[in-house]
């Protein structure tokens, strides 16, 4: 049996991104974190 080809970093990133886009809860969490950072820098 052949070993699966190692995926490049770009492939892993795009796969991860597509999974995140499907996962609404994770997206909400990320958006809240980004918003909190923006508010922290604004003060």
Automatic annotation (TrEMBL):
- Entry's Pfam families? Fur_reg_FbpB
- InterPro entries according to UniProt: SenN/SenS
This protein is called FbpB family small basic protein
